[in-house]
Amino acid sequence: MDQKGIEHYLEAAKRAAAWHENHLAEIKKSRFDTMAVHGIYSMQEAIDFNQGSIIEPIYMSTAQAFRDSDEMEAALAYKIPTWCYSRIANPSMYYLEGVLALLEGYGSDVETSCLATASGMAAIQTAVDPFLLPDPENPTEQINFVSAAQVYGGTFQQFAIRKEKELGIKWRKVINPGNIEEWEKLIDNNTRFVYGELPSNPGQSFFDLKKVIDLSHQHNIPVIIDSTVATPALLRPLTLGADIVVQSVTKTLSTSGFGISGAVISRKNLVSKVGSPEMKADFSLYAKTLPNRDNGPNISPMNASLALNDIRTLRSRVDVQSRSSMTVARYLSDHKHVEQVDYLGLESHPLHRLASDYMWLVDAEHDEQYRQPLNRYGHLLSFRVKGSPDKARDVFDAFSMIFRATDLGRIKSVATIPAISTHSQQDEEDRKKSDIPPNLIRLCVGAEHPDDIINDLEKALAVLDGKKVSFTAPEFSAGGASSALLRRKGEDSE
Ligand SMILES: *Cc1c(COP(=O)(O)O)cnc(C)c1O
Predict the structure, then answer these.
(1) Which residue from 121, 227, 247, 436 has its CB within 8 A of the most atoms of ligand 1, so it is best to mutate?
(2) How many Cβ atoms sit within 10 Å of the Cβ of residue 75?
């Protein structure tokens, strides 16, 4: 057989890298919606590699075959573009990673890269673990990380149990993240990273991101932001100086709700006192090719493709759902059975001003109907029902359209009571710190017409006036044979 030689592959890889770099530079000139729709996939790639398929194919394959031993050797040494084995990489995964890296860097010249994971929790673990290294000069000293106390329930468990209780790494909690002095007091030489959610789920806590970044960078410490609730349609922390963003891609990014997925998006050359030069140069690439190769929290090609499809419409969806959320929040604020509504979009919210400095609908100034920068606040809100916690449960149990589920970001409205679901593992004291009382209902507004969402809320709240709602359930699912078919039972099907 005619050996091509390893040089042949290295040369071809150089030409391909130059082509892709050019292509990427072209895409970066386009607007957010265009990036979201096309990502890194091109017509040339469709024609040359994918039989012209205009939609990115789903590569349901464990591994890649090589032309010969030279190509295999170069590939396994990561010297040529390759995906090798789906625990490490896969073309469907690349398409998702490519678009998320573009969107989180949009509107800036910050160089970004992305690593997709099996879940948001895996993304958080992937993002934080590489920093949790001892100081080589003082290997016995306890290390710590500084994070806002108001974090997602799963993150709370990962930090409080897996990191602090099991590994002895101290979680220094910032109780009032709006107060920059609190962050400052907690950071010391043994702090490995600074962490926060913007906004937090479910409490919608917010902090001054630029100040926290300045402070952390003065100490040479990276800032990691969970930006799941905002999405890059409203906030892009990397463009403001943050080092790493984590996304539960499960949520608003993949609104259809077909599956669980996550992502780490990082800036090139991030700030850190610990870690190798390779890690700091391109954190996502490092995590993908080394720790995650060894730990295996990878995303399946199917889930990557499903997420990719939803992301195409991100901006307009977030706009519509934010507007509906505002309408719903105003309605709830005026309701006699509602004690308090927390929505960052409401002027009465103590963090409204601060959030308004950061949460902007991307490209509103280029939108035909707006033509100016516009604040949008996402589709997460919560409200507290007056009276005992039982009253909140009565209202919750009376929803007929709003799904009772511990979910977020869906195209359908969903609601939960965090104290008995997502935050049930925490004790009363911790829930108090995170401001999650038992009468709080978290509502994530879907893309239904807001009139219908309000109608469902109205009927549910009327239960507190003694109005009963009664549900009758069908004995068979709508997914079964239709009644029209059953009516034809006279005709013999045999
Ligand atoms: C859901 C969620 C996570 C965890 O994501 P999974 O995909 O469920 O693992 C992390 N952060 C926030 C803010 C979330 O809402």
Answers:
(1) 121
(2) 19
Q: Which amino acid is at 150?
A: Q
Q: What is the DSSP letter of 54?
A: S
125: CA distance to ligand 1 center in Å?
A: 12
For ligand 1, whether the C-beta of 152 sits within 6 Å is: yes
Instruction: Give SS3 for 19.
Output: helix
Domains of the chain: 6-311 (3.40.640.10), 314-465 (3.90.1150.10)
Cβ(402)–Cβ(414) below 8 Å:
yes
Check if the beta carbon of residue 366 is closer than 8 Å to that of residue 220: no
Alpha-carbon distance values, 438 to 149, 339, 386, 428, 444 (Å): 18, 13, 11, 9, 18
Task: Take atom 1 of ligand 1 and give the residue whose Cα is closest.
Answer: 248
Residue 494 reports pLDDT greater than 70: no
- Return the half-sphere exposure (C-beta side, CA atoms, 13 A cut-off) of residue 299: 37
AA letter at 254: S
Give the residue among 263, 228, 217 at the shortest CA–CA distance from 125.
263
Residue 190 to residue 142: CA distance in whole angstroms: 7
Q: Is 3 helix (H, G, I), strand (E, B) or coil?
A: coil
- Most informative mutation of 151, 152, 225 for ligand 1 (most atoms within 8 A of CB): 152
pLDDT tens string 319-363 = 999 999 999 999 999 999 999 999 999 999 999 999 999 999 999
Tokens representing 247 are 């996304």
Nearest to 261 by CA among 225, 293, 227, 308: 308
pTM for the full model? 0.95
Ligand 1 atom with least separation from CA of 409: 15
d(C-alpha 373, C-alpha 363), whole Å: 7
What is the torsional sign of CA 472, 475, 477, 481? Answer: negative
User: What's the rounded Cα separation, in Å, for the pair 394 and 337?
Assistant: 12
Task: Judge residue 471's burial from the number of C-beta atoms within 10 Å of its C-beta, 0-12 exposed, 13-18 middle, 19 or more buried.
Answer: exposed
Nearest to 238 by CA among 252, 223, 257: 223
